[in-house]
């Protein structure tokens, strides 16, 4: 009897272990699990049906519309029933950590009920970003802060004055019957609260409400939303490996990563060189996705005037792999696309190149082409039109040759490796010497070049003989008319020589006249006459601005010799030049402009040429005799702040002292304040970054590169523009709204301050190999630990703790999400003035008097007392019930 009592708990424990294994181990999932919903593939750890998913939040449902036979494809929902999962670019759900979703929910309002709530909370998921349309009327909308009693009031839905449908209200969504709610980045859950103005009484709206659902319902519909997920049954990879029975990364050649944001949970990924599903046994495999045989006949091979050769294709079965399938969205306009963000300009199979034009801003790490389940086979090489190398498969040539059924290189071609700065990409194919054609195509592959069709390939009295891949010459003799032939040849040759010389002189003169006409045409097109008039009517502009001829600038740059190139930027190329008066200048060739941009460019030159500030690079003038106007600036000899900060990071060369950093920051802040406030027309720089802060021979700061700047009348607070800037420095509010204001420059300057403190690039790679945004990293780390623990060692050695805390606090204020909460550049400059004055006073042998400090500051010491209390003010601000910047940007990983 006692033996049975001892054995029973052991049996129960074993059954519990089996249950856990069935719940979490992919090898134990039911063999009859549904693997597709319509055309979408469902990948574990997600699944449909009991035993087919790893954890409860990964349970999916496939809604086929009740089997009604309609034309609408089936929809996939998470287990909450309101979150629709949209497949990724590869037509799958489960392989991509970042998932596009659509959320739609309706609340029916009843008389007498004053408020309603809508919540979204799935423990395994994080709302990465989202925008929602809320239709209805006569209520305020609040975003409840998680874990607090605080709330954010984003908008109010007013009732229309006449009968209006939900469709019409949603079209404008301007606060009348509909408003837009933006969620912060990376929130675990959120709750919307709807508070009716009249406590739920219908009032005078009965007549209108009978004609529209706006008065009776609240509809929450996402414009766009993204979520990402983690395995959350264990807090870290280490803990999961200890509990080996629950460990999710079961495939060979897979690896585990801890959650970077909330420090709870982990994710799995295949090792470099492997693709597939790391959550199933043997899910990570070497690349097997290339098919050398075209599966469909009579494939279309062009989109407008762009040729689409194999291995690329426009239809299913016409490309060698999913990654090479393209979309011809408009054949008339030759609009060939990978996706909405990437337009194809050309495809070159000979050099394995493809030209990509991006329709939105991208950082270097986002230039690749990504399809789920496919390896990254593209490597960017350019700028606005990016020439990208591509590989057929992520295999070495030796690996590819072992599997002839998937080998890409057809006859008369050879295999070559493709490498990038980050490592090996894969292999490509090239025709052998003496052959030409498409090395990837079986039907029109590499064919022999008939070299004998080339004139004079063999010597005189020799006959050319073509062979496969080459040719050879055989000798022959001429026995008749040899002397006569020589005489005729000399006469003909002399006549041809005289004709050629005369023709060359005529052509040279004709070309010179054509060039003069073309320069005059460009001068008129670029509004040269208008600029001349502006300069002649303004004495100050006449003394400071010169219209250079193209010949002057060619001479100054040795005909734009490539050795004179100083750098390539987002807005053009810069050459070093020496003018005839021995002035050293920087000559910028901007990118192609629209005619409307050229019209405003002239005004901009006239105004920028009048800027007179010691910390702004001086504009000497421009040249209008080329298709795109050239700008001539003062040359600044010591490069940029970015180069010195991060070259010193990689080596032990010259490093800026803390005193130099404070001075440079103060000078740059003063220049930006001058642009915002001191000029007759406010100038928003729009691309403030450390690489645009140049240093002269004395390491004095010079703010440069106004290619993205916008001139704004002093009575305007903002201007709506296309989004433009540099990733890592870009103001997130400007990115979301398109409304540019002076506080956008303040945000970017805050990133520069963080660079000076941490000596890290604005986008850097952390210890785990993941790219991180510097501003997000700084705000998160500052929140978790003292700032002295995250600053660079040199800063910690040279600066006092009080100085570090003041600069960190100033940077934090500049990086606030809402522009109203950021300081002005004037306040930033005054803060840095005070800090530098205090440092000079403390380091001086004779302490400076109060009057001397005030003179340096240009303000009263009562203001400096206020600045010193900023730490207390910051603490007070953080205690208020509003979303903070850290909450909005809690994610330290980059978006895909």
From TrEMBL:
Q: Which SMART domains match?
A: EGF, S_TKc
Q: List the Gene Ontology MF annotations in alphabetical order.
A: ATP binding; calcium ion binding; polysaccharide binding; protein serine/threonine kinase activity
Q: Where are the transmembrane segments?
A: 482-507
Principal subcellular localization? membrane
Q: Which Gene3D superfamilies match?
A: Laminin, Phosphorylase Kinase, domain 1, Transferase(Phosphotransferase) domain 1
Domain Protein kinase, first and last residues per copy = 560-835
Q: Where is this protein found? A: Membrane
Q: Which UniProt keywords apply?
A: ATP-binding, Disulfide bond, Glycoprotein, Kinase, Membrane, Nucleotide-binding, Serine/threonine-protein kinase, Signal, Transferase, Transmembrane, Transmembrane helix
Taxonomic superkingdom: Eukaryota
In what way does this protein cross or attach to the membrane?
Single-pass type I membrane protein
Residues annotated as binding ATP: 588
Q: Which N-terminal stretch is annotated as signal sequence?
A: 1-21
Q: Name one Pfam family in it.
A: Pkinase
Please list the GO biological process terms of this entry: cell surface receptor signaling pathway
GO cellular component terms, semicolon-separated: plasma membrane
Q: What is this protein called?
A: Protein kinase domain-containing protein
